[in-house]
Write a structure and sequence with these properties.
Elements: E1 2-6, E2 16-21, E3 44-48, E4 53-57, E5 64-69, E6 79-84, E7 88-89, E8 95-96, E9 100-105, E10 110-115, E11 120-126, E12 132-137, E13 155-160, E14 164-169, E15 176-183, E16 191-196, E17 201-206, E18 210-215, E19 220-226, E20 240-245, E21 251-255, E22 259-263, E23 270-275, E24 281-286, E25 293-297, E26 302-307, E27 315-321, E28 330-335, E29 340-345, E30 352-355, E31 365-366, E32 376-379, E33 384-389, E34 392-397, H1 408-412, E35 416-422, E36 429-434, E37 440-445, E38 449-456, E39 465-469, E40 484-486, E41 492-497, E42 501-509, E43 515-517, E44 521-522, H2 532-535, E45 546-551, E46 557-562, E47 567-573, H3 590-594, H4 606-612, E48 618-621, E49 635-640, E50 654-658, E51 663-667, E52 672-673, H5 675-679, H6 687-690, E53 696-702, E54 705-710, E55 714-718, H7 729-733, E56 774-778, E57 792-795, H8 809-822, H9 825-829, E58 842-845, E59 851-858, E60 871-872, E61 878-879, E62 883-888
Pfam family, one: WD40
Organism: Bombardia bombarda
GO molecular function, one term: RNA binding
Amino acid sequence: MDIHRCRFIQYPASAINAIAFSHSSLPPVSGGKKSQQKHVQVRLAIGRANGDIEIWNPLSGTWHQELVMPGGRDRSVDGLVWVTDPDEEMADGKIIHGRSRLFSIGYTTTITEWDLEMARAKTHASGQHGDIWCLGVQPLPARETGANPATASRKLVAGTVDGNLVLYSIEDGELRFFKSLIRTPSKKTKMVSLCFQSRNVVIVGCSDSTICAYDIRNGALLRQMTLGSDFSGGSKNIIVWSVKCLPNGDIVSGDSTGQVCIWDGKTYTQAQRIQSHKQDVLCLTVSSDGSKIISGGMDRRTTLYEPIAGQAGRWSTVFHRKYHKHDVKAMASFEGKKMSVVVSGGPDASPVVFPLRAAGKEYHRTLSHLPQSTNLQSAPKARFVVTWWGNEIRIWHLPIGARELLDDAEKRQNRKLLAMIMVKGESNITSAAISEDGTLLVASTASEMKAFQLEPFAGLPSEQLKVTKLQMPTATIGQGGIKVEISPDRIWVSWVEEGSKVMLAKVTITPTGAYTISQPSKVRRLRRPVPKHILLGGLGSYDRNVTQLAFSPDSKMMAAADLAGYIDTWVLRAPGEQRNGASGERGDDADLLSGSGSSSDSSDDEEDQQQQNGESERWVVNSKAALIPKLASAPVVLSFSKASGPGFDGDYTLLAITTLKQVLLFNPLQGTLSDWSRRNTYAKLPEALRETRDLVKGVVWQGPRAWIYGVSFVFMLDLSQDLTAETTALTKSGGKNGIKRKRDESGAGGKMDKQQMLAPQHIKTAVGPDGVEWVDTEMADADGDDAKSVGASSAFEDDDEDDDETDGGELQHMRDGQQQANGDGEAAAAGGKGGVQRRARWWHTRQYRPILGIVPVGSSSKNEGGTDATTADDNGVVYPPLEVALVERPEWEMDQPARYFANGEWER
C-alpha cells in the first residue's frame, strides 16, 4: 500500500464548553428489577463552542461517539442539562425507566430541547430576559415527604446575565417560558452558576462576590453569602464560576481567586476555604455519596478533595493532576456498579476520562478530539480528496507523478486545492459524499440536502474546477440528513432522515450532460419489535438510529446498520422481477415488513411510489435479510468487500466491525456468516487489535485485505487466510461472546502499578514538524518479510489450530451449523502450505496519529500498457495495488487561545 501522508487538510477542533451525563449515578437494584438494569440507557452529552452536541455511549469504558448534532452559524453550546422522568411500573411488573430529555443553552435568551431519535433540535423557548448563563432542573420530591415523584411537576431554572432568575415549564413534553422569579436590584450582577440544595431551594453563584439561596416557590431570598474582595491588585468582585451541593446539604463553590470554599448547608456560613488553584476555578463535580469533590481550573489542574478523618466538615487536597493542555472548563461525573468516572474538557477539545472511585489507582484516558465518523471522502478515479467542517467543503486533487524522482519540497507541493464550496443556510454540514468519478457531490445539513455537479478541467486551468449547483427534489425541502452515500456507479444517492429513515434517489443524465435527481423514496426496514417498557422509557427508539450505510461494488445491493446492532439489506430489482421469482409474491418475510410493535418504518408502499416516480428499477428488502442476527454491540464499520477469486464468488461479502472489536463477514444473499467468520472467532483476532482501546473508524479494501484504521492505528487483516489463536491471558479468561470484560476497571484507563499510584506527574509536550505539511512514505511490503518494519507488527503463522472461544448467541448457531455441514471445512481452507508463497495474515502500525481518516486515491502501479497492475498468488487471490491518502490532524497544529502558566504569566 502506497501512502500519501497529508496534514494540509484542516479540521479545526472546537472547545468543549459543557458536559453532562444523563444519569449522575445508577443506584443498586435488587429482586426482580435486576434483570432490567441493563435497559437503563446512560449517555454522555458534550457541547462545543461551534454549536455541536455529541452523544457518547460509555459502554463500560469503550466510549463510542454515537451521534453528532452539528450546530450552525454563530451558535455555541455553553450549558447542558438532562431531565430524567421518574420510573413507572407496568401492570405486568416491568419497569419503564424514566424518559430522558436533553436541553442546552448558548449564552442567548433561548433554551433548546434536542430530539435524539430525530437527531435534530426539537423545540426552542425564550422569554423577556437577558442571555442565559446557567441552567438547572428542579429535583424530584423525596419519597420520604409522601409526595409521588411520578405526578410531581418540575421546572427548569435559568440564571441570566442581567440578574434574573427565570422558570421554564417542561410538563407534558413541552418547553415554554413560565415566569420570571427573581430580579436583582443591580443589572450589573450576573447569575453565573446554580445548583439545587433541595427540591425548592436553589443556590446561585453570582459575579458580585456573593452566593444566594432562593426559594423558587415564592422567590424569597433565604440567605446571601459573601466572599469579600479579591486579593490585593485583583478584581473588586469575585466571580463564583461553579457551585455544587453535597448530599448532606453542604455547599461547595469555586471562584475566580482559585479557591474552593465549603459552606455549611444549615447555617449558610463558610466552614473552610482551600487555595488549591493558581487561577480561576471554572468547574466542580461531587461524588454521589459526597465523599469526593473534584475541581478544574484555568491553571489546567484537576484537583481531588476528600474529608479529613475525625474532623467533621473539613476537607483536604488529596492530589492534583494536569490532564489537559489548556483550561479545564467543564466536567461531570457518573457512578454505577461497573463504572465510576469523571469526564472533563476545555479549549484543547479533547475529553479526558479519569477514575473517581479508583482515583490514584488507575490511569486517565484522553479521548480523541476527532469525530468517530470521519469528515473525509475521496473520488479515486479522479484522485479527489474532499473534506468539510462547518458550512465549508474543500476539494483537493492529488496529481499522478513519479514520486520517487521528487525531492521533499516538490512532494509537499504535489497537491492542489481545486474548489471551496460554502453551503448557504444557518445549519452546518452533517455529512457529504462524492462519486468515485468525481462528478457528483452531495452534502446534507440538519434542514436540507445540497447537490453539485463537478466538471474537472473542462476548458479551465488545471488548478480550477467548475461547480454547478443542482436542483434538489421538492420532497427534500426542509428535510436534512445525517449520513450520505453515493453508489459506485453514481446512479443512486442514499441518506438517512429523521435518524432512522433510509432514503434513496436516482440520478439521471439529461441529453445536455446535466445531472438530475429524482424524488426520493423511503425504503422499508425489517420490523424488529421493541418491548413496550423499553420503547416508552429512557431514550425511546434512539437505538434504531441508522449510523452506517454501504453500497456493494456493483451498486445492486445496499446495507444499513443501526445503534442496536441490526443490519438491513436491500437489492435492486428490474421491472417485473419479484422477490422470490413468482409474480405478485412478496416472500417469506412479508410479516416482518407489515407486523406491529416496531419502532422502525411503517410505510408499505415504497415500491409502488418508486414505480410512480417513473423509475425503471426498484429497491426491495433482501429475502434473506431477516436471517442476519443482531450484533452484540453497535457497528462502527459496515462495508462491502471488493475481493475476487476463490472464496469470494457467488455472493457479496459484507464486513461489520463492532465497538467490541468483533470482525464479522456476512454473505447477505444467503443470510449467513461467511466461511472465514465461522472459522475465525474473536479469540483468533490478533491481540494487538483486541486490546486497543480506540475504536475502529473505517476500512479501505485491497482485494481480500481489509486495511482497518482508528485514530491511533492502522491494521491489515487478510481475509483470504485463516488466523491462529494466540494463547494469552485475554483468550484464557474468555467471557461472554469470547470477549474479556474488564470488570476490574472503572471505565477510564488501566490499573497503575503500585509504585505509580499517586506518583508525581511528569508532563511531556509534543512538538510538531517545523513547517512540513506533506510527507510521502512508502509502506513496507506486507507480502514479504519486510512487513516487520519499525513501529509495525505482522504475523506469518502456519498453524491453523482451532480454539474453543466462541461468539455465542445467534452468531454461534451459525458457526455450529457450518461445522456440522462442512465437517473438514477448516482443514480444507488452510492456506499458505504445500509450496504456496507465505503471506502476511495481519499487520499493524501506530506510527500515524491522530488519524482523521484514510481514503483511497487510485492505483499507484501501472503495467506497460497503462492499466492497473494486479498480482495473484497460486490460489488465485488477487491483490490489486492500493494508493491512499492518510490525513493526520495533530493537536499542536490547532489554533487555541492563550492559556495561564504556572508561573502566573499569560501567553500572548
